[in-house]
Amino acid sequence: MIFFYTGASAECATDCNYKTCPRRYYLKLQAKADAAELYPLAGVTPYDFYPKYPVPQHGDIVILYAQGSKELVAMNESCEGLEGMKKVLVVGDSAGIDGSMYHKLSPRYITQANRNIEELELVIKKMKIQTSRIS
């Protein structure tokens, strides 16, 4: 299964920047045919909806969306629960981020939100194929 995590708010604020908005990125990714099984973990939908979604397990894919350096630091401090998952990191605004901060999460792929989303889609397809071969 594929999960999407962000520490951002579930609602777009009045100052929402569509290029770095995690909710808009999630919806765009979810609209892709192969992302039909994309489940939110936090920040994308109100908490009330979480019980209907499956629980992530060892070997699942998780897309971590950090709007900027502040959120990336928070992810690095609180990501123990993601051990054993295949991580992909998407960064909304990379200004001021030290490259070593990316790798502390041990992602298999790193991209920026303003890049072509089809690249991420291809990476996810390959990761799903590798996962199905192992199981």
The CATH class label is Alpha Beta
Strand order of the largest sheet: 2-1-3-4-5
**Total of DSSP H or I helical runs spanning 4+ residues:** 4
CA radius of gyration: 14 Å
Helix content: 25-40%
Whole-Å distance between the termini?
13 Å
Biggest sheet architecture: 5 strands, parallel
Q: The CATH topology is what?
A: Rossmann fold
The helix/strand class is alpha/beta
- Helix and strand run: EHEEHEHEH
Q: What is the overall shape?
A: globular
Count of folded domains: 1
Q: Would you report the number of β strands?
A: 5
- Mean pLDDT figure: 79
Task: Identify the CATH architecture.
Answer: 3-Layer(aba) Sandwich
Beta strand % = 15-25%
Low-confidence stretches: 46-50
Quick take:
The chain has helices spanning 22-30, 69-77, 99-103, 117-134, and strands spanning 2-6, 38-42, 61-66, 86-91, 109-112. By secondary structure, it is α/β, with parallel strands linked by helices.
Describe this structure as you would to a colleague.
The protein is built from four helices and five strands. The chain is an alpha/beta fold and 135 residues long. The protein has a single domain, classed as Rossmann fold (3-Layer(aba) Sandwich). A five-stranded parallel beta sheet has the order 2-1-3-4-5. The longest helix has 18 residues. About 4% of the residues have low confidence.
